[in-house]
Amino acid sequence: MFINFFKKDKFSKISKVKTDMHSHLIPSIDDGSSSIQSSVDILKYMSKIGYKKVITTPHTISDIYPNSTKSILKGLDSINDALRGSNIDIEIEVASEYYMDNEFINRLNIDDILTMGDNKYLLFETSYNFKPIYFEEVIFQMISKGYRPILAHPERYKYFLNPKEDFLRLKELGIYLQLDINSLGGHYGKLAKKSAKILVDLGIVDFIGSDVHHIKQVSFLENIFATKEYHNIFLKNKILNDTL
């Protein structure tokens, strides 16, 4: 009898976390979902692949997407209205992905910030190409005001020229790190894929996010779930999604 000792592991195409904490599903306020129906279709697909809760996080960028707390909460209400009676077994909450700029600092000063969970987790991003000169100062301000800063998709920033050292420095500053799951499959390019592996291998990933803008990304995500690279996240890191 022949035994195949080289048989590949087969993984389920189901999420290993029940909560997604990064997506763009509030319709027509950023570069994400364009309609209520699109948002509902995405949520239905996410429910199918194992998610029970989605914390959607529209961009807040003063020059491009100058969203307010009021407009974001209004968008959440519209999605919840559409979900009623839909038989989709998923809960949706809202925060925001804040771009680190002067307007964000102004919001920080008056605590006009949408956070996630009970521990004031604050999702933020920066330019992909240039690190803000006041980066560390703003991080200190966030923490001193009781927020827990989460840097969205650190693997995608081109200014981290020495990824291992730079990522470890982020942790020293008290920053939580959120990996875009689709980076593992090369969805954002070779550099992001390489940096994603470094983050996973260092064991410093705190959160993972779909960063879904449209339904095709959910299909890509589903395929990533069946890979060894995805399962390695949980072997090497303590993922906090389901504490939210």
Automatic annotation (TrEMBL):
For this UniProt record, the keywords arranged alphabetically read as follows:
Hydrolase
GO MF terms listed in the record are: manganese ion binding; protein tyrosine phosphatase activity
Q: Which InterPro entries match?
A: Caps_polysacc_synth_CpsB/CapC, Pol/histidinol_Pase-like
Kindly give the SUPFAM superfamilies that the UniProt entry links to this protein. PHP domain-like
Provide the E.C. number(s) assigned to this enzyme.
3.1.3.48
Keyword Cell membrane part of the UniProt annotation: no
The record's annotation in Pfam families points to: CpsB_CapC
Q: What is this protein called?
A: Protein-tyrosine-phosphatase
